[in-house]
Amino acid sequence: MRKDVRILLVGEPNVGKTSLIMTLVSEEFPAVVPYRAEEITIPADVTPERVPTHIVDYSEAEQTDEQLYQEISKANVICIVYSVNNKKSIEKVTSHWIPLINERTDKDSRVPLILVGNKSDLVEHSSMETVLPIMNKYTEIETCVECSAKNLKNISELFYYAQKAVLHPTGPLYCPEKKEMRSACVRALARIFKVSDLDNDGILNDHELTFFQRTCFNTPLAPQALEDVKNVVRKNLTDGVRDNGLTLKGFLFLHTLFIQRGRHETTWAVLRRFGYDDDLELHQDYLFPLLKIPPDCTTELNHNAYLFLQSVFDKHDKDRDYALSPEELMDLFDVFPYVPWGLDVNSTVCTNDQGWITYQGYLSQWTLTTYLDVQRCLEYLGYLGYSIIAEQESQASAIAVTRDKKHDLQKKQTQRNVFRCHVFGITGSGKTGFLQGFLGRNLVRQRAIKEEHKSYYAISTAHVYGQEKYLLLHEIFPDFDFLSETELSCDIVCLIYDVSNPCSFEYCAQIFKQYFMDSKTPCMLIAAKSDLPETKQQYCMTPLEFCRKHKMPPPQSYTCNTAVAPSKDIFIKLTTMAVYPHITHADLKSSTFWLRASVGATVCAMLGFAMYRALLRPR
Ligand code: GDP
Ligand code: MG
């Protein structure tokens, strides 16, 4: 909303402009007034809309035309005052004042006008009959009002209307010529409807309407009021109410009615609550709230956010098959201005037999976006209405910023849930097969993936001592000379060689020696394509000897050339090493470590349980 409002009063001499201003300020009719009142500023807290308001007078006797034009261009709203007992002053509204103002303002951003008929105390009849045709002709006229400075009639109303015309303009919402809402407004309201339709059945039922009312207006809706609203819609529309709930058509009709009855501040309140600015675009503060992420920290979704995303999934998984069909996915993205997920997403996360993103895959993709591009994640959550539906202060409250990894390493403990694994290997060594194998796809299913839908990422979950963790695999393009800082920073490294290709191990050895030998990041050597006959690697040592020498676990055989889904064992091992990077490779082999680690996990789990109980206990 605007920070202040500037109201200018114009009109013929002696219609009562100065008297109106003085009456507003002093609450009594002044017997004598100057030609022109000083500019006054009404502080925010005494105006109905809580915005500082400047009121500016005009006097032909004291001001030049140039000064008038300047004031016109500075004004946010202009009141054209006439005197109800003075025909000539009414005529001048159309013959002089409106053209003069319009000449000085842009056609697309016309300043709203208010017609003010002053001195209503002097006549019996109303001037409305004369004024209505003018209102119909000039759409920039927001409203008209008759008042009397002398009787103090409609004075505060006049300034309230002026303020409202600026703060809640009808222009962006409604097209007076066509007598219907503008398409941008319909689009915004349709999105709001969709977000508020919690069960996605196309109807706002009583529960959803009550929630909507509370979110937008902070007051509950009385049961009778709820019925009244529905009855109004029923009376005017055949399909505005269905199954005792409001359809989109009914919802849009209600807003048209609000606007037509001059209650467009109601519609504005709804739009603003759902993040829209004055141009009916989602506000930057709404989509991109400030979020500080210190170096060496990562971003994850918190429990609340997962619950919300789960509810979004549920409302779109209409056939309850725990996967989103292309239609269901499109329906989910209906509240987005563009489709955020390309087909590469299907090869980044788990899908079902039809290739549709599963529940697990859906949450994985969200986890990936949050981890790799948190700004995008915030934006997407904004489109879904997270902060509104989950009743949070902003989209930023969905994000958990983890503590500095150095701290984790020091304390030998981590609260993180997402771990990043970089996969190195020469072209054709089996990196993609490894990534896709993590998603449960064997070689046959991998061959079905089109080139343009391939992904360098794969994300899914792995259980580490009963706790679900996300493992994010990232295939690194084999280029020796250009490994950037981000390509090197991860929680665990996979070095892949092809057992059937004698030249593939050397690259792993070189990458290890050049980049990871002295780093704290644990490394694992993967002997891929283990279903093929093994050949001797062209290197001064065998892979096993290399691992021994550098205190790495022995090479892990892997194949995705399987009849069923490839084994997940290796990914559980990788995740475990990523979660517990401080353990030595000897530890990994010894049974006592596993025991110790699992005892640790139980303690954690019990602690969690106790905290949960404490939370449940009434205060
Ligand atoms: P301006 O030139 O438009 O600023 O008009 P003024 O405020 O100077 O008022 C012109 C004359 O109209 C003064 O004599 C006022 O007392 C009188 N006047 C202003 N408002 C009213 C009103 O509401 N009723 C009546 N009866 N007289 C008014
Ligand atoms: Mg005056």
TrEMBL record:
Q: Which residues cross the membrane?
A: 593-615
EC main class here is hydrolase
Q: Where is the Miro domain?
A: 2-168, 416-580
- Ranges for the EF-hand domain? 304-339
User: What is a single cellular component term in the Gene Ontology annotation?
Assistant: mitochondrial outer membrane
Fetch the Gene3D superfamilies from UniProt: EF-hand (1.10.238.10), P-loop containing nucleotide triphosphate hydrolases (3.40.50.300)
Outline what the protein does: Atypical mitochondrial nucleoside-triphosphatase (NTPase) involved in mitochondrial trafficking. Probably involved in control of anterograde transport of mitochondria and their subcellular distribution. Can hydrolyze GTP, ATP and UTP.
Name of the protein in its database record: Mitochondrial Rho GTPase
Q: Which organism is it from?
A: Cyprinus carpio carpio
